[in-house]
Amino acid sequence: MSIGRSVVIKGTITAAENIEIAGRVEGTIDVRDHLVTIAPDAKIFAKVSAKAVRVAGALTGEVTATDRVEVCQDGSIEGDVSAPRIAMQDGAVFHGRIDMPGMPRRAGEVVPIRQTAPLARAANG
Description:
The termini are far apart. This protein is an all-beta fold. The protein has no helices and 12 strands. Strands 1, 2, 3, 4, 5, 6, 7, 8, 9, 10, 11 and 12 form a 12-stranded parallel β-sheet that branches.
C-alpha cells in the first residue's frame, strides 16, 4: 500500500501488508508483521510499530521494530528506537535513545560496537 505525497492522515494506520508513506502522518502506525517505508519527502509525527522500518524522510516519535530499523542517508529520526538491529547510513540524522533488545548485558556493562572494516592508521611523523 502506498500513501502519496499530497495525503495527510491524522489518526491511526493499521495494515496487514507493507506500506510506503510519502505524505504526512500524525498519530500511530501499526504494521507489526510488515515493512514501513518512510519516503524521502514524508513527514511523520507518530508512534511506529512494525517488523522493519526504513526511514528516508523525517520521522519524529517512538519507533519499535521486531526485526530492524534503517535510517537512510537523508533520513532522520527524532525519538526513541527499539529494535534488535539498527543501521544508519552516512549522513543519517538521529536524536534519541536506542534500545537493542536481545543483546546480552549486565548492569553497568558497556557492549562494544563490532567493527566491520579495519580502521586506517595514521603514520607517525
